[in-house]
Every structure is written in C-alpha cells, then in structure tokens.
C-alpha cells in the first residue's frame, strides 16, 4: 500500500532548510520522486521548495505528515502545504459561448493528464449543456444580465460553496464577482487571449491585428481584483504574418489558448505552483 | 550578362493587375524567380505585389523598366518601386554601448546574408571604434549630452546626407532627432528589447521581470515620431521561468535582439517589405 | 451569387505562364483572393502555382473554367487541378485505440476549420463507436487479424469506393493495404509520431527516450508504399528534458500529433498542397 | 571573502541521500544558491544531484569539501565532482573553414556568458588566424591530409596535454582521432548540423533538402567513438518550407548551430551536465 504526498514550502531563506526537510522525510521513510527549489536570494531572500514523495506505510496519513513538519515550520517561519494527490481537487469550470477550452479540459481530465474531478460547469449560455451532461458532469445555466448580475453571482457562490476547490474560467466572458475572487483567493485560473501584458482587456485579437504584431499569444493567470493583472502561470505564442485576418488569428489563437490553459490547470492540480508577490514559481 | 530586378507595387485592388504586370515582364523577357502578392480585400481593398526576376540582356536598365511600367502605374494608380539588387543599399548603423547587434550586422554583412554596404557606424561612445575600423568601416564618435544634442544631430544629418539609404539603430539608446526621422521616412529600423506592444519605453527587461512573464521577446520596427509605435517588421521570443534574473533575461534577450534585427535588415535590403497604414507586409 | 474557385498548376517553367493564367482569369472576371507561386529554377525547372478566386456569375461553372484553361494547359504542358471549395471533399478517417487525433479532426471539422465532410470512420476497435455515431458519422468496426487481413482490406476498399475522396490515418496502427494506397494515390494522410526521418517505424517515443533527444516531434505525410517515407506535409516539435518518461513524452506527443495532423488535413482540404518528386509544396 | 562551489553527484537511489548531503553543506555553513535533482526511479534507480553554493570563509577549500563528503560518498557509493567556479576550465576550440561557431564562442566568452578560458584554437586552415590572434588567443594551424594525419593528431595531443580541460569542435570537419577521444572522455563537445538522430554523417542539409523536411535543426553532443552517436546535450530547430534552397538552409542552420553549441558549452562550463548511460542530465 503506497501513499503519495507532496509538500510545498516557502520561508525566509537561511542555511539548513533543506537538511531539516529532507531529514524529516527520511525519518518518515519517504521515497522522494521529485524535488525542486528556488531562492530569490540565499541571503535575505525567500526560499521555495516542492517535494513529491511516497510512503510505504498506510498509516502515514496527512495528519502524521503535519505532525512531523510542525517543529520545522515553526523554526523556519515556514508556510507549508501538504497535499495527497489521491485526494483529488474539485474543479468548477466557467464558460461562455466558445467551447474549445472547455472541451480541452474535459478531454484532458478524461485522459488523466488533468488530475482533478470536475464538480460542475457553470455557463451563461445553454450551448454546452448536452456535451457536458453526456460526460456525467452537472451543468448549471446561469444567465447574466445587468439586472440579474447580483442574483447570478449569489447562485454561483452557493453552488460552489463546499463543492469546488478551484475555478477555471475557460473563456468565460463575464467580469467575475469580487465575491468569488475573495472566496477563491489565488484559486481562480483565467485564460486571457493575448500575450500579457500586451492587449489587456477586451478584443485583444482585433487590437493585435491593428497593431500589426507578428506573433500572437495567450496567457493563463490567477485572477485578482485588477483586470488581467494577476500572477501569470503560463504563456505561449504562435507566429502570424500580414496575411492573417482577425478571424484567422482567432482560429490560431484557440489552439494556443486551450493548450496554455490546460497546462496551467494541470500544474495547479499537481501542486506545482507557488506564489511570490504577484508572480508564480512553477516547478515543472 | 544577367541583370537582376525587383518590383514592389501597391494599388487599389481590381481585376487585371497581375495580368498586366506579368504581361509587361513577359514582354521584357524577364525570368521570374519569386512572386508574392496580398490583398486586404479583392473588392475595394489595397493590393500589394513583389516580383523578383532577371533579364538576360544588359540593355534592360532601370530606365527601361520604368518606361515599360509607366502606363500600368498610371492605369492602376499604382505606387511602384523598382530595385536592382546589384546596386547595393548603403546602411548606416547607430550604436551605443551594447555591441551584440552591431557585431551581428557586421558579421552577416561580411557573410553576404545582409546585402548592403555599410557606409558608416555612428556612436555616442568610443567603445567599438577599433572593431569597426578594423573592418574598414568609418566610425564616427558623436557624443550626445543635453547641451550638445542639437549639434550632434546636425553632425549626424550631415554625415548621412547622400551617404546612406537607410539607418539601423542597433541598440542606440538615444531618442532620435525628428530631423533624421523626416530625412529617412520608413527607412530607420530600430530593435526594441521587448515583445511590443508590451513594455514600450525604457527598461523593458526589468518590467518583464516584475510582471512575471513566462516569455520575453524583441521587436524590429520602423521608427516613427511616436516612441516604439512604428510598423513592426519582425518579432521573436524565448521562454523563461521564475528562476531567471533580470541579468539572465538580458543575456537571453541579446540573442533574440540580434537575430530579429538582422532578419529585419535582411528583408529591408532584399526589398521584401511594403507598408500599409502602420503595418508591414513582409514577402519572405 | 458568388462561385469560389481554386486552380493548382504545375508545368515546366518558362516565361509567360503567369501572364497567360492571370489573363485568362481576368477574362473570366475573376476576383483573385490569394495567389502564390514557386519555381524550382526559372530556367529549366518546374513551376507551381495556386490561385484562389471568386467569380461573380453563377454561370461560371467548373466546366467553363476547364474550357477557358484548356489552350493554356496544352501550350505549357501544364498539369491543372480546378477545385470548387463549395463542393466539399469527402474524408474517411481510420483510427485504432488512441483517440486524440480523431477527436481533433471531428472538432475542427465541426468548427469549420477543416472544410470537408466526414464520410465515415473505420476502426479495428469498437472504442470510439459511441462518440462518432453521436456526431452523426457512420462508424465501421472492421477488426484486423493476420487471418482476416485480406477480407478486412476488401471490406475497407468496398466501403470507400465512391464514398471518400481522401483518407486520414488518425493513429491507425495497422499497415495499410497496397490496394488502398493504389486506390488513393497521394490522397492518404498519415500522422507519424516522430520527427521524420528520425525514428521511422514502430515505437518512436521509446526510441527517442533511449537516444536521449531533447526535442520530440510529429510528422504528417502522404502515404507511399515505403514505410514512413512519403512526402512530408507538416512537422512540429516540442522541447523535452531528461526528466521526461516515455509516458510523459507520449502525452506531450499527443498534443503535437493532433495539431500537425489537423494542419495537414486542413491544407489538403483547402487545396494548398502540390507534389514534386517526393516533396510537398505547401502554399499556406 | 566568498568561495563559490558546485557539487555534482550520482549514486544508486535510496532514502536519505539529500538529507545527508544537505546536512554536510549545512555544517560547512554553505549558502545554497541552486539545487536540482533527478532520479531514474526512487526504488532501484540512479539518483543525480547538482548543488551550487557559496562559503563565507576562505579556509573552505576544495580539500575541505572533499574531506567533508568522503564518508557520504563511501556510504552511498557515490560518484562526486566538486568544482570551484573561480578555477575556470580551459577550453580548446577546433575549427575548419566555417567561422560562425568559432566567432560565437569567442564573443560569448568575452561577454562572460561562457565561463572558461580559451587555451587555444586549433585549425586545419589558416583562415581564422588573424581574428583569433587579435583576441590574444594562440592559434595553431595544423593541416590534415591522409599522409600527415598521424603526425597531426600527435601534434594536437601534445598541444592539448595539460593545457586544456575540454575540447569544442566548432564545425571541425575532420574525424577526430580515437587518441583524443580517449584523452578527453566525455569532454569533447561537437556540433552536428542536423537534428539527430536524423541525418547522421555528412551533408545533412543536402539530405534534409532531398527528404523535404519542414523543420531543420542542430545538435550539440559529447563525442564518442561511434559517429554522431554520443550523448546529446542540446538541440534546437527552425521552420523551413519548400522555397528554401540548400544554401538557405545552411544560412538558417548557422544560426541554430552557433546558438545550440554555445548553450552546450555554457552548461558544460557551469557544471550543469551529468551523464547516465548514453544520455545527459542537464540541470539548467
């Protein structure tokens, strides 16, 4: 019987952290499968570490791990997250009309490359109801109009309460309520259809076309209160040329968007992302 | 005896342009080696075309070509450029402290991939004097201070007058005089060390670092009066991650900058670039 | 009423081809939307051209086009294909167990980026029957064993006869019958899961892992009798490192495979591909 | 006074390695700046680790480090390399006619991105003598003919003996003597002008052209006795199309070759490369 575990830590950097952490894992008879670390500065900076491991004994539960690490986290003023990958995260997907990101997430989840359970899909359109329900996933149609915005947000919050660990905005074209942003701090992943910080806001492809850029991109980031300004998780790009219409760019863009978003979601599920100020540290 | 030629045209799109142009070349016994065209819209848009060819008879001079195309340009309200690649363009390079773009241009010119003569290098520093002179290229050291700015610009303009066909700013860190921009309209190529329109202006790598982007880039563009807003010729990018310091980014960035700039200069020399509003059409 | 058309030509290069072709299109009042050409050598080489256009009059049918071009094709010993995009090609998809390429084709066809009708899916497994039938596409389960190979091939050939214009092998893991290859010359597109010509044949990811390459890829090509040796249509790659297992490589590889295959199929449907010896000319 | 150090280890994987190594570094008061590890399999595989650190006391010499790690290396049957980056490696560059890789290495060394001393350049041509000598680097012209091959190799071996730590073949077009390969095991870096294992051997661009590939590449690898079959350090690629002649491909290829080779050399100098069977583990 094998129990898999992951530890994510951050703390002020100082000598001895790795020695203590690895000693603790050794005493728990952990077999380390991956380990990565990063320091902003070995004197006076912040230290980040991710360790993935497995334990051979069933009794080594989450509690035992927390107990073992308690003295270390206190000594080093450490923030620690201990995750058991066998306890899968619950993901809620928000989507509007465009389906490519939704389909990619559904498919990669089914393939096992995204290691999460899909708790529900919430949409302000009915378009994807059949597709989603056919996969056994609850679909909540919650239309949003200026008049119903408040009630819609309440309904969303109620549905999510206790049922989702994180949210993915898979081309959801409504501004998210601050209520939800507060409820899921650094646990809402958005895909923005430009290479941020270029073309913040609406109609990025149209603006890229007008500016005459030679490369377009997409950006997955955690949502914060400021529009398109949250910590960037992943970006990718594709080359275009003068002959691409806005519609061609959107078509190419869809490929980038779904790939970038799926990567970001996979890393989030695999506990590969740590936050430092407004930036991500991605151990991948 | 072979004479090589290139024709760049733009005009309101309408049926029959290609037929007339290719008929004229046929009557001149031209052997077409490359031909590319683009229309913003076949009904009512603008049509662009580039034809590279050679003529078997020595007598087919530039004049003969202009004469042959005169009725066509009039009929189609065509803007036409006729270039003979054997008459090489004269390039002036401006550079400040950083040498990587300068070296790349010198090397690619020597290798023959950049088909231009280097008329001179102008710098506000003495650093590259030996390197440049060793290659037999005149080097003009023109320091620029707030007090001497006006005289410096006059000196630059005088040196360039009649001696250069276009200018390359190879990491020249001074704002160029409007005088020069007017003197060389759409014939000044700059390399900006970011993926425009992200990080317009100073210190782009520092700002990319602060924003936490996962990809950095560089942009070659024609200079216009508005800072970093001229027509983009070429861009490229490289992937980075959280572990890259500003200094690492600059180091990676140098590779992108020199490659992107050299490509843009090569295309300019090979008459591959047409302008449409604030955008480039690059037939490459 | 608009009729869209495309002409693909190849012939021995000589002066005057473009003039004659464009004159003929002009006389048909064609509005040219795209035109591209390539010559292996303007003296004595082969000339290739693709023109996309539309005609404003309904009466300009396929027949009229063929009539208009008959004297030209004779004069220049031209091979010509005239296609009307509104008459969509019929595509048959072959697939085995892995679904990613199949799903991509189904989705892009539904989105309209692949402009073909899906005539049928043929598989040696039952796995995808529900998915395919739910989209209204016929699914033919034809198991292949050493004993039934001949009958299976006969069944395939019978199903395809008159019902398919081209075949896509979307990770079909059986060697295709020479019968089919003959029946669909240069009209069977395969996706090979390596960067050809590296790792021809079986188990490319395993062999890439053993060789320790730092980049993996996929290749879409037309099938010929020699294994993995047909004309390459498109390739793409992704960066890996020492930490990638064979399984990780397969997972990354799936993203490349489906993208590369879908691109190749799109270009085939859009009549963008010409053949020259064992190579493709792709006007995209 | 700061002393910088790096440790590279490999050993059979088992629990406790990291704990012991990091404890030893802690006891030496080392400040860890980078640490990376990799296991082929936590049960029964091979474990690899690289740690970069600095020590605050001058007395912590190489010897002290070796002493501190002796019990650990014995306990874990560990292979260990301890490097002090302030003791720079001595690099010998071999080059034939093509200069682009040589120039890149010279420039990056001067810029400080390649942290090695250039002990000498050896060439079978005189072409680069002036360039190299102007940088204060000894240039040895050793022509190689079938008749003089043996003497040439003896001369090379004698020049290198005690004067070089590793060799870079910067487009050196002679087969290297087994004598040298034995003298510098896994310390000769070659750039091969194809995406290995495609196009092993001579004339890779010509063969890539004939095969009609859509992407070309270059590969930096350690030399072994078998041609182009040694451990791959780094690869990169560039997209081409049907319009590229062999000469165009060589021109694009030069950009890839010099970049890939320079990266591999930098990593070698920075002690980022470990070997496992015929593969590299690159901690970058």
Reconstruct the topology from this structure:
The structure is a homotetramer of 284-residue chains.
Chain A: E1 3-12, H1 17-27, E2 31-39, E3 46-55, H2 62-75, E4 79-83, E5 89-95, H3 100-111, E6 116-123, H4 129-134, E7 139-141, H5 149-160, E8 166-169, H6 178-183, E9 188-192, H7 204-211, E10 215-222, E11 232-239, H8 246-269, E12 273-276, E13 279-282
Parallel strand pairs in A: 5-6, 5-8, 6-7, 8-9
Antiparallel strand pairs in A: 1-3, 1-4, 2-3, 9-10, 10-11, 12-13
Helix pairs in contact in A: 3-8, 7-8
Into how many domains do the coordinates of chain A divide?
A: 2
Strand coverage percent of chain A: 25-35%
Helix content of chain A: 25-40%
CATH superfamily of the largest domain in chain A: Formyl transferase, N-terminal domain
Residue runs with pLDDT of under 50 for 5 or more positions of chain A = none
Radius of gyration of chain A: 21 Å
What's the shape of chain A?
globular
Q: Which structural class is indicated by helix and strand composition of chain A?
A: alpha/beta
Q: From N to C, what is the helix and strand string of chain A?
A: EHEEHEEHEHEHEHEHEEHEE
Notes on the structure:
The structure is a homotetramer of 284-residue chains. Chain A is an alpha/beta fold and 284 residues long. Chain A folds into two domains: 3-83, 2-Layer Sandwich (Alpha-Beta Plaits); 90-282, Formyl transferase, N-terminal domain (Rossmann fold, 3-Layer(aba) Sandwich), CATH 3.40.50. Chain A has eight helices and 13 strands. Chain A has helices at 17-27, 62-75, 100-111, 129-134, 149-160, 178-183, 204-211, 246-269; strands at residues 3-12, 31-39, 46-55, 79-83, 89-95, 116-123, 139-141, 166-169, 188-192, 215-222, 232-239, 273-276, 279-282. Chain A has a seven-stranded mixed beta sheet. A four-stranded antiparallel beta sheet of chain A has the order 2-3-1-4, with helices on one face. In chain A, strand 5, helix 3 and strand 6 (116-123) form a beta-alpha-beta unit. In chain A, helix 3 (100-111) packs parallel to helix 8 (246-269) and helix 7 crosses helix 8. The longest helix of chain A has 24 residues, at 246-269. The model of chain A has no long low-confidence stretch (mean pLDDT 95). The A-B interface holds A 38, 195-199, 211-215, 217, 231-237, 241-243, 276, 278-282 and B 38, 195-199, 211-215, 217, 231-237, 241-243, 276, 278-282.
């Amino acid at each position: 019987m094998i129990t898999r575990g992951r530890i994510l830590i951050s703390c002020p950097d100082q000598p001895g952290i790795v020695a203590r952490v690895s000693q603790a894992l050794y005493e728990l008879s952990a077999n380390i499968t991956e380990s990565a670390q990063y320091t902003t500065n070995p004197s006076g900076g912040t230290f980040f570490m991710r360790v993935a491991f497995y334990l051979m004994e069933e009794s080594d539960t989450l509690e035992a791990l927390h107990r073992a690490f308690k003295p270390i986290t206190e000594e080093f003023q450490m923030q620690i997250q201990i995750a058991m990958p066998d306890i899968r995260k619950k993901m809620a997907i928000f989507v509007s009309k465009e389906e490519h990101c939704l389909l990619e997430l559904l498919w990669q989840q089914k393939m096992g490359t995204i290691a999460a359970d899909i708790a529900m899909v919430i949409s302000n359109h009915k378009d994807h109801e059949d597709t989603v329900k056919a996969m056994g996933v609850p679909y909540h149609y919650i239309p949003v109009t200026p008049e119903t915005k408040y009630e819609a947000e309440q309904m969303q919050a109620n549905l999510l309460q206790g049922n989702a660990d994180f949210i993915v905005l898979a081309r959801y074209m409504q501004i998210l309520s601050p209520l939800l942003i507060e409820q899921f701090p650094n646990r809402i992943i958005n895909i923005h259809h430009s290479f941020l910080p270029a073309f913040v806001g609406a109609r990025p492809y149209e603006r890229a076309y007008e500016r005459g850029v030679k490369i377009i991109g997409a950006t997955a980031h955690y949502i914060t209160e400021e529009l398109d300004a949250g910590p960037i998780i992943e970006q990718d790009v594709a080359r275009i040329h003068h002959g691409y219409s806005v519609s061609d760019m959107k078509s190419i863009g869809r490929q980038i968007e779904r790939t970038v978003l799926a990567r970001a979601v996979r890393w989030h599920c695999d506990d590969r992302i740590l936050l430092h100020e407004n930036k991500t540290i991605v151990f991948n």
